[in-house]
Amino acid sequence: MRQMRLRDVLLFGVIVRLAIAPFFAHPFDVYAWYTVGESVVNGKVPLQSFLVPYSYSFFLFVFPAAFAFSFLSGYLGSYTIPMSSLNQDLNPGTPINILVVPGPLFDLLVKLPLILCDLLVALLIYKLIMRHLGDERVAVSASALWFLNPLTIWVSSGWGMFDTLPALFTILALYFLLDKKFALAGMSLALAVEMKYYAIVLLFPLLLVAWRNSRWRGLAEAFSGNAAAIFVLSAPLLAESALSYTTLVGTWAPSGLYYSGLTFWTALTLFVPGINLPLVSGVLVAALLVMTYLWTWKRSLATDLISASVYFGLPILVLLAAFRFVGENYFVWILPFASIIASQHSRYRPLFFVMSVVALLSSVTDSLLPYYMLPMAPWIGGYLASLLSSVAPYRVAPAGSVTQTLSIGKFFLSVLGILATALLVLIVREWVGVLRAKPNGQEEHPIKTTSSENVVAS
Question: Nearest Cα to 99, choosing from 83, 78, 80?
Fold first, then answer.
């Protein structure tokens, strides 16, 4: 059988993404991107007000799409769909009462930067493996595990969520780190943190690998690069008010029964009200992170690609396993590192695939089904209304609040959450075995010194 080439992987992945991008969208998130972008284009909100952590992502994917949409819609038509023109049963309702479905043109434009990020991650994975392992077959396989992964495709091109942005900067940090460009690695991780705060848990493995490689010089360069970038990017927020940082770490403690996402916590919060989940989850996450950092510090001196990928991956797995709310899109955070490890160790691929499928299944069958298909409502609105009626018994919160009684939906989402957490624990166990299999200081795949000029993508 002919060896799969990188360009074939990339071409097929791009075609699939472009095919689904106009016709599917998360009803709340894409509506939010549309309204935020419209407010900036119309001058209602100044662009510079988004020069704060988390909002930097808007510069990279929302605002270019909003300005392009404003220009192109004058010639092509906007194709936006007023909710008043549709069956009112199709309005998702709380927590956001959607007034308009942005439509295929906006859906495509807002997802193009995300598709580009997916592509860049695939190329970085390929270059990492070619540079440090020198095996093109493994490099193409790893890129395919990321770029052709249905979950990756769905989150960026179906859902329209920007988790691929911080994922890009975390894998870029690993790329620079193993290339001993420690300051650039620190800056890249800072950009990831400013996109989504989860990436801060990767600071320890970044500093660990920098220390293992070049001791104090590596540690100083990585830390200073990260700290300088964080300070510059956060300066607007600091100038506004230091107290504004409370919004970054503020607790979220809803009352009553509620959905906690793709996590075992859902099995509790859907049935037991009054749990102080922010406190319990925070303590658990902190304890597990400390244990993870101590174990990786004591266990291995290796700084090869596979070991470094494990170092970066384990803290993210801890977050996904124990954090108080886990959206299915969060699983994109782990996929670049999981793709590298699974491409080299085929025994881990079944867990990789099952994890991706469970997250995808949860995303498309939770309480938002069938609202993801609203961009197609002008053509299949009657079908969507019938589908909504069919899935009503499976809905956890049909009227905006979680029902008190046992339902198929509550049972289904609870099982998915428990299954997802169990898979994450199994992956932790397998990845820990990767490091345990090597004596301290032994690199399974020593870093090659081949210059980047010799690495040419197919």
Answer: 83
What letter represents residue 71's amino acid?
F
**What was the pLDDT predicted at 380?**
93
pLDDT score at 88: 83
Distance CA 359, CA 364 (A): 9
Tokens in use for 437? 């299999």
Residue 221 CA, chain-centre distance (Å), reads 27
CA dist 201 and 421 (Å) reads 19
Would you give the distance in Å from CA 162 to the centre of its chain?
7
Q: Hey, which residues does 82 pair with through a beta bridge?
A: 100
Three-class SS state of 383: helix
The C-alpha atoms of residue 180 and residue 190 are separated, in whole angstroms, by: 17
Q: How many CB atoms lie within 10 A of CB 68?
A: 17
What band does 398 get if pLDDT is binned at 50, 70 and 90? low
Give yes or no for a contact between 166 and 375, defined as CB atoms under 8 angstroms apart.
Answer: no
Residue 101 has φ and ψ, to the nearest 5°, of -95, 115
Tokens linked to 339? 């793709």
* Amino acid at residue number 13: G
Residue ranges in 79-149 assigned as alpha helix (H): 104-132, 136-147
Question: Taking phi first (over 0 means left), then psi (-120 to 50 degrees means alpha), and beta for anything else, what does residue 181 get?
Answer: beta
Distances from the Cα of 376 to the Cα of 50, 80, 89, angstroms: 31, 11, 15
Report d(CA 394, CA 411) in Å as an integer. 9
Assess whether pLDDT exceeds 50 at residue 109. yes
pTM above 0.85, yes or no: yes
Q: How far is CA 400 from CA 38, 93, 281, 322, in A?
A: 27, 7, 25, 26
Both tokens of residue 170? 């975390």
